[in-house]
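Continuing the series of single-chain predictions for the mutant panel. This is the parent chain; the variants come on the following pages.
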Amino acid sequence: MTEVTYYTQDGLDRLKEELHHMKTTGRQQISKAIAEARDKGDLSENAEYDAAKEAQGLHEAKIAKLATTLSTARLIDESKLDTSKVLALSIVKIKNVKNGATMSYQLVAESEADLKTGKISVKSPIAKGLLGKSVGDKIEIQVPAGMIEFEILEITR
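Parent structure:
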C-alpha cells in the first residue's frame, strides 16, 4: 500500500508537468536515440543500442513511479488549516535556544523539499520534531550534528 502525500497547488502542478514532459519529450528523445543506435548496424555488438534500451527502461520506471506518486497525491486547502499547531504546509519560525539563531521553514512533501527556499520535508528530523507543537513550545530534536533545542516563535500558512 502506498502512502498518501499532501501537496500545495504549485507542487502538484509541477509533478503533473514533469510527468507530461517525461511521457512526451522524454520518450521521443529516447526513441530517437534507439533509432540512431539501431541504424549503426549489428545490434548484438552495439553498446550504444544497449545503453539506449537501458535508458528507456529507467525512464519508464521513473514515469511509473511519478504516476504512482500522483495517484496518491492529495491537495491541501491551506485556507482551512489550523494555525495553532504545526501541520504539513505550516511555515514555522523557530529559534535555536543555544545560539539564538532564528530560521523559518515550510513543511512540505518530500518531493517539494528545497532547503534553499526554506522548504523541508515533513519526513525530516526537524519537521518530525515540530509536527503537532504550538507557539512557545520548546523541543529537543535529534539531528545529525546532535541534540538541538528549538523554541517555536510563530506558525503561519
